[in-house]
Amino acid sequence: LLDARDPRDRGYTTVDILEDDAVRQGMKAYAQWPTFPQVWVEGEFLGGADIVEEMHERGTLAAGLGVKARAGGCTLFLTPEARGRIRAILAGRTHTLRLVVDEQFQYRFEHVDTPAPADHTVEIGDIVLVLDPASARRADGMTMDYVEDDSGAGMVVDNPNEPAPVLPLDVEAYADWKAQEPHLLLDVRTPEERAIAVIPGARLLDEDTATWLGEQPRDTRLVFACHHGVRSLVAAEHFARQGFTEVFNLEGGIDAWSRWVDPSVRRY
Question: What pTM does this model have?
């Protein structure tokens, strides 16, 4: 949202702290906080990026900003076997059991004495679970089962909110359908590396491309590549979490492509 009025008419002014070292150092000293960005609300320092992100995860950011949090809910489904396992975890304790679903969609239970004000409470028969706002969003609509078989025992989760898995893609298999299947090949290396060698058709994943990619349909097929396939896996997992449903990581990266598909591409 852009406001064409003079900044003085908006009730605030802007200062580029990267161009004014005195302001930058002064803000650090005044806030007693060494880094930027900094969030201030009505003259009070709220925190840096990490603290604000943590407040958002815990559901306390809206109150800190002086605004009303959006209402939300969470629906969970537990099989009888899962309910039995949770009762065993509680072991007769009076503590409330918290279900945490982190950013990587890893699940864990924690005992907690008193739920936080922003927590969501889910009652399933005699089972009561509490979830922080971020966990509630990630868990909404999921089903949890408890399975015992010859390979072991554990909770099995069916969560429609989980990102699609990143699929490994062999360079020779990619060469077979590269020209026929619609897709985007995204190179996560540096421009300096691309100057040495590049897979034909690859697009550099710079800031502009990342912004453009975020606007594309989530069923767009994405193939990520780097030097050996490590950095590209991290990037692929990031975009899978953004909702893309067909995400591949080129195993071995451009080095494997040079060795097994196209020797004319320089190795380095």
Answer: 0.62
